[in-house]
Amino acid sequence: MEDADRKYLTGIRKLIQKIKCSVPFSFTYFGHSSLTVVRQLSGQSQLIRCNDCGKFFAINHNVRVILPWECVRHFYSPRMAETTGELVMPILETEFEVFCDKCGAGLCMSTTVKGSSIHVEPCECCINEAYQDRYDDGYREGENRNDEN
Q1: Tens digit of pLDDT for each residue in 2-31?
Q2: Minimal CA–CA distance to 10: which of 30, 18, 50?
Q3: 42, 62 in Cβ contact below 8 A?
Q4: Residue 72 to residues 33, 37, 66, 85, 100, Cα–Cα distance (Å)
Q5: Could you report the per-residue pLDDT of 68-124, keeping only the tens digit for each?
Q6: How far apart are CA 39 and CA 45, in angstroms?
Q7: Where would you tag: which of 10, 33, 74, 90 has the fewest CB atoms within 10 A of its CB?
Q8: What is the dihedral angle through the alpha carbons of 105, 110, 114, 119, rounded to the nearest 10 degrees?
Q9: Which sign, positive or negative, has the C-alpha torsion 58, 59, 64, 67?
Q10: DSSP class of residue 113?
Q11: How many helices and strands in the chain, by DSSP H and E?
Q12: pLDDT > 80? residue 59
């Protein structure tokens, strides 16, 4: 292959990559291919840069996600970097209440949080009502069989 042909193909590849980089960001498509790690943000995340278009992204390896840096930069606290030497995601704490969707009973005492998972036990009132409904159905079925005999 001659130098002119090689330069032409290289130019076409660069043009195609620029088109891929210009596609709006989505969770299902990431067209940036030549990436460089700019710095470590935390133990599980890094700031990366596309060498083709110059855009910055944050990549989190634990949750396997890449987001535009401008969307997440405010989550990283520079004050934390002064003490730890790295930018880290803050820990967000929240309080919430859990209620039964059917009867409205409070379920806070039957809710446990383990890590990032929330487990809610079924509502005791609704369980008892379901048992009673099944008992009543069985009773009616038994009466119907007795009536047939």
Answers
A1: 887 787 777 777 777 777 666 665 555 677
A2: 18
A3: no
A4: 21, 16, 10, 19, 34
A5: 888 887 777 555 445 444 555 555 667 778 888 788 888 777 788 776 678 888 888
A6: 9
A7: 74
A8: -60
A9: positive
A10: E
A11: 4, 6
A12: yes
Placement of tokens 């990283």 in the chain? 76
| 3 state SS of 149 | coil
CA dist 33 and 52 (Å) reads 8
- Identify the CA nearest to 46 among candidates 88, 80, 83: 88
pTM: 0.44
Q: DSSP readout, 12-80?
A: HHHHHHHHHHHSPP-SS-----SEEEEEE-SSSEEEEEETTT--EEEEETTTTEEEEHHHHGGGS-HHH
Tell me the domain boundaries of the chain.
3-84, 108-148
pLDDT at 128 over 80: yes
